[in-house]
Every structure is written in C-alpha cells, then in structure tokens.
Specification:
By secondary structure, the chain is of the alpha+beta class. The protein has a domain at 52-103. It contains one helix and four strands. The longest helix has 13 residues, at 2-14. The termini are far apart.
C-alpha cells in the first residue's frame, strides 16, 4: 500500500513540473573556422595509404610484378611516372595493360 501511495503522489507532482521557457531559443549561428587576420591558414595533410604503391604494379605473364603500362590511342606510358613505353609493338608480352578494353 505504501508503494502505491508513493507512486500516486509522484504522478501527481509530475504534472506540476513544467518548463520555465515554453519557447525554444533560436539555434546558434556557428562562425566559420577562419584564423584571425594576419595569420596563415592552417595546413592540411593527406596520409598516403600503404597500399597505394600497388596501384602502379601489375602481374606479367610469368607471374612477376611489373610496372603497369597504360595504353592510349596516342601511345603507351608507364602509370607511375608518365614516361613513354616504347616496346608496345615489338615486345607486347613485356607489359600488362591497365585496361586493354578501354581503347578498343
């Protein structure tokens, strides 16, 4: 009986507890993170992935890793440095093209 009476009193007082301000305040306007005048902007750094070096390699016909060659209608070149690859017509098995179907 004592728990029931305590519960009824708590429910009675719950209706009396109202908020002081019935209207919510307007949202705050956040300022942009700009440095004060005369200071340089903060520097950002890009963390290079450890797996990024594998984008420049491909497996050749013997199973060895070789530098990837990209074929274009204007000539073939190495992907990692952009130097021309001169042996596309004389020794086509030396390279693994990046996307052979892209230039067909």
């Amino acid at each position: 009986m004592r728990t029931l009476l305590t519960g009824l009193v708590a429910l009675g007082f719950a209706g009396l507890a109202v908020a002081d301000d019935p209207v919510a305040p307007p949202p705050r306007v956040l300022q942009a993170d700009t440095p004060p005048p005369g200071m340089p902007p903060p520097l950002g750094f890009y963390r290079k992935s450890a797996y990024e070096v594998w984008q420049n390699l491909s497996v050749d016909r013997q199973g060895y890793w070789r530098a990837r060659v990209i074929l274009t209608p204007y000539g073939a070149y190495y992907r990692y440095n952009g130097q021309p690859f001169p042996w596309t017509t004389t020794q086509p098995l030396l390279y693994t093209p990046y996307m052979p179907y892209a230039t067909d």
